[in-house]
């Protein structure tokens, strides 16, 4: 297929500048997004099992609820029931509560001892999973515009530009798509290999990237889109307002857990009941949010569908479970969420989205490297703008990964010290991220890339090492290290460690023995005998 050269140059310029202006933000969003595919496993891994609700048999859960609501004031406002194979566990917020990332929330957990006496313990809620999810949604950008996160809106703009970059990139490749798509030409140098890898990942994963870009734009700007419909609807409300209650019920009028389960099984027979969230029980407008999951269904939430019930009458207020009674609009909206979250194919889908998310991060990183190589000076000192962009690329990309790794490493050590757990996560991430960027500017992109990659290797290895140490220490909290989900986190950390170690060695080899005029070259004095020593240390 032939395309006029001037047209190709135009699309190449569009692809380059839309990519370079969004790449760093999208790198953070994609890397963190890949990790959120296993957010429940990360949360379980980070939370000590002895500081969590202990399940009781479903025959005893009603008795436990009755005792808790009689003796605990906060529990009368609302409580949570988590269902597992071992039964049901009860908890409630003694401080904070609600959705989103909150740093000071504290939970209480209740159980019955052998004498059927109530036992209550308290612990801070562990927000590590929510921190990673927040990075995915906002790229770590702090602030709000109205009720929306500033980072969400900025990422929405970035996603729109990213969509344009994808289309223009495909047009650039059309003339040589069939011939060169799977050609990884290692013998033509590192730059050609990076370009071939970038093109291959971009084309093979194109449907995934188009889907993520489009749904991200919808998520970011759904409120302005709804506001625009006022032109059609006028003063008529777009969504039917929820009827306000006038009756305050007594807590002893709550149905049993078995009655709720029977009702929900009838409403969603193909789903598994995972969690109940009761709220506003002592008000005229109580609510029960029932979280249900199904591995072979499109789900509205990242991990669940939700059915909202009146907790006393069991009247359904709202449901995200797709049914034949819904109009065509509901399944379309649900599909936007499900396709973005990758929750429609169980664990196979999550592993696929995890892999594609990491490849997406590679796409942005490699795109920046190619841009930098294309703009470097062939024989002279590199331009200041090139050095700044190189330092930013290394600092932001490696710094964001290192920040997440440090926060995960800190998760278990923070329990040994009298510090605010979730503030510790925030300080760990943002301090590491800022230091990595500062270090990249101070030492230059080439040196800092090597050092940060080795640091990432050490931190990733320290994650399973910490789990082993805390498993050995008798006085340490119990993290149930033998649980499959926990072991998966440790194994992935070791795989990342190996990848970062290999990348660090490659970066070192290129820095000292690669092309001298590259932005990634480190030029050493020739008369100090340094190069032989370095030659023996590279692999």
Write up this protein.
- This protein is an alpha+beta fold and 539 residues long.
- It has a domain at 380-539.
- It is 57% helix and 10% strand.
- The protein is built from 19 helices and 10 strands.
- It has an 8-stranded antiparallel β-sheet. A two-stranded antiparallel ribbon has the order 5-6.
- β9 and β10 (316-319) form a beta hairpin.
- The longest helix is centred in the first third of the chain and has 32 residues, at 5-36.
- The radius of gyration is 26 Å and the shape is globular.
Give a quick precis of the structure.
With 539 residues, this protein is of the alpha+beta class. The chain is built from 19 helices and ten strands.
Number of strands: 10
Instruction: Give the DSSP E fraction (strand runs of 2 or more residues).
Output: 5-15%
Structural shape: globular
For the biggest sheet, the summary is: 8 strands, antiparallel
User: What is the average of the pLDDT values?
Assistant: 83
Q: Based on helices, strands and strand pairing, what is the structural class?
A: alpha+beta
Terminal residue distance: 43 Å
Please mark out the parts with pLDDT under 50 across 5 or more consecutive residues, or reply none.
527-539
Helix content: 55-70%
**Total number of helices:** 19
* Run of helices and strands: HHHHEEEEHEEHHHHHHHEEEEHHHHHHH
| Order of neighbouring strands in the sheet with most strands | 4-3-2-1-7-8-9-10
Evaluate the radius of gyration: 26 Å
